[in-house]
Amino acid sequence: MLPYLYSRFSLIPATSRNVARRFFTFEAGDFCMLREMRSNRKYLIGPLEEGMQKDHKGGRINHEDLMGKPIRSIVRTHNDAYGFMLHKPTLEEYVLNVPRACTPVYTKDASSIVQMLDIEPGNRILEAGTGNGALTLYLARAVSSQGRVDTFDIRETHSNAAKKHVQRYDRGRFKDVVSFYLGDVADHVTQLVDNNNDDKEIFDGIMLDMPEPNKTIGSLLPYLRNDRFIVCYLPNMTQVLDLVQATRGLPVMMESCIETEWKEWDVRATHIRSTDETAWICRPKNFDVKGHTAFLTKLRKTA
User: GO cellular-component terms in the record (predicted)?
Assistant: First the structure.
């Protein structure tokens, strides 16, 4: 019988997953987010291996010192100059800090894409343009272990890097959810269809991150379920116009075209020496606006 975890309002049955999260300890192969206690800066370290270390300006951290430690433990550099709290990295922290084969799809766009595709657990999603695997992981988490993500890329280096990132994230939690394919999606999508089944509409959503989706979308429509969505990641408006013009006459309608922006704010207390009072800083962080990356264009299949 599974134990119960204490909630603020009641006792709730503990699933194997939330028990594992509550009592998580770092092991070889894990990634760890180090949060510097003094400055609150974060550093990703991993995968953890015996004999490996991470150099910091204030000292050195050995991987062995992290293995076996639970989350929120405090560790220090070899010369005790800096202290760090250990955190399990979030998906955003992971995809932004692992080595890049190319620019990842950032969280502000990835979360919007998941919403625009209206993904539910158990869905099957087709992705063209695997890239660094960042969006692939967001899609895999959305479809959950009951779903599936089929992802294509024409570059072997990108596909291999993405596969490694998916296999390493959260101890391979989504490695069985994602299938990687090398080549042009229009040429190879037919291999995913069961020839013994007359129904070719096998996908609940299609995500296209490619320079000219207008040349591919017509060949992919037969494999998308009716009344479901295609989202295209397009860096400039010229690509959007080419797409809209190319889809005239196809059984699709344009639902929306959005551009997402995030502005991070710095909200913290500071000490005024002259008056010995506390004041609050509230301003855009580094005056940096995470602005334009792409236009997200959403199409709905109508027949």
Answer: mitochondrion; tRNA (m1A) methyltransferase complex
